[in-house]
Amino acid sequence: MDGGRRPQQQIPVVVLAGFLGSGKTTLLNHLLHRSAGSRIGAIVNDFGAIEIDALAVAGALGDSTVSLGNGCLCCAVDAGELDVYLGKLAAPETGVDVIVIEASGLAEPQELVRMVLASEHPGIVYGGLVEVVDAAEFDDTRARHPEIDRHLALADLVVVNKLDRTADPERVLALVGSLTDRAAVVPATYGRVDPEFLFDCRPSEERIGQLSFDDLHDHDHGDSHGDGHGTDGLGRSGHAGHLHTGYDSLSFVSDVPLDPRRLMRFLDSRPEGLYRIKGHVDLGPNDLRNRYTMHAVGRFLRFYPEPWAPADERRTQLVLIGSGIDTEALGTELKGCESDAPHADEHGMWGVLRYVQGSEDEPDPEPCGG
Fold first, then answer.
1. What is the pLDDT confidence band of residue 219, given thresholds at 50, 70 and 90?
2. DSSP 152-201
3. Span 101-157, pLDDT tens digits
């Protein structure tokens, strides 16, 4: 990698799990309808690998494997076979922006996540485990399938679906929240979750992982319902009556480098409900050559160093997304990570380098390890 060239954009792989009837397929179809032209690749129900044009095939997915001209591939696979399917979907010629693995209702999500994390394909990145819960049947589901508590503890995002069908939605939301481990809990009906929570709906020139900065900075346009919305000075969502109201967002920009030790303390203590952090960090004299693209989903964390281009403005740009998070406090904490020290801290980078892929000190891959 030299000059001002950027590495190939990695495609997020989202694992969509939940017991039968929770609404996974409804949610996936909703994403297809609301994808704003993004192209979604899907590996559906017991690994039938298909490629989906989100505009042309919206609503085509059912509860069984779908074949779209390239044959039915519904078979049990190991990590190597899954890598083959992911590689086909991630090929540049497909134009895919995000890959969704819709697990079968009885699948073990932890194993699926491990397989994605174990992928050796350079063109993909883990995009999070989304667990879909049927609010109306949650108590009965826990009685029949006590393992759901373990699944919720592993999830990066929990969609509590069918809230309109339960008499006490607040009780269910609180109960689900008590069973998660720092996951964002998002209420939903009919699987209606804003796709920008999972992937970038408007691929732009400056795209960071699954969400573009433009999507959070440019809120002057209306959505498909004609609702306008805006952000305050910190980039926080400030609108109501819209799918965005299920979560909060913060965009943080700083022209002052961040201190790596302070940054890692911030990341190690990030609060419950902070689902995603995307963007890049300027670590100043600690690494004058590289900026560090950050990808955090739930507790999963990775840094990707890449050389600054000559024309780059050396600054930190981060987007934080979650549910029930205190965006003002998070902004203050990030501000406290700034440091204008002229010299590098000899051991300051150790914490960051633990989360650089391929580093000798890199932690073993865990579904939500970070």
1. very low
2. HHH-SEEEEE-GGG-S-HHHHHHHHHHHSSS-EEEE-STT---GGGTS-S
3. 887 766 788 888 888 888 888 888 899 899 999 999 999 999 999 999 999 999 988
Q: Judge contact between 118 and 79, C-beta under 8 A.
A: yes
Question: Residue 358 pLDDT more than 60?
Answer: yes
Which residue do the tokens 């204008």 mark? 340
Query: Tokens representing 67?
Result: 């074949």
H/E segment holding residue 48: strand 48-52
User: What is the layout of strands, in order, in the sheet containing 316-322?
Assistant: 248-254, 316-322, 274-281, 290-297, 300-307
pLDDT, tens only, 273-309: 888 898 999 999 999 999 999 988 888 899 999 999 9
What residues does 207 pair with on adjacent strands?
A: 212
Q: What contacts 206, CB < 8 A, 6 or more positions away?
A: 212, 213, 214
Q: Give the pLDDT confidence of 254-280 residue by residue, as tens digits.
A: 999 999 999 999 999 988 888 889 899
CA distances from 144 to 19, 117, 141, 177 (A): 11, 30, 5, 20
The distance from CA 293 to its chain's CA centroid, rounded to whole angstroms, is: 14
Cα→Cα distances 48→44, 68, 102, Å = 5, 10, 10
Number of Cβ atoms within 10 Å of the Cβ of 331: 18
First-to-last alpha carbon distance for the chain, in angstroms, is 27
Name the residue among 55, 18, 289 with its Cα closest to residue 155. 18
Residue 45 has pLDDT above 60, yes or no: no
* Rounded-to-integer distance, Cα 135 and Cα 333, Å: 35
Question: How many whole angstroms separate alpha carbon 316 and alpha carbon 339?
Answer: 12
Nearest Cα to Cα of residue 330 among 296, 357, 284:
296
Among candidate residues 52, 119, 59, 45, the one with its CA nearest the CA of residue 89: 52
Q: Which two tokens stand for residue 8?
A: 């190939």
What letter represents residue 111's amino acid? E
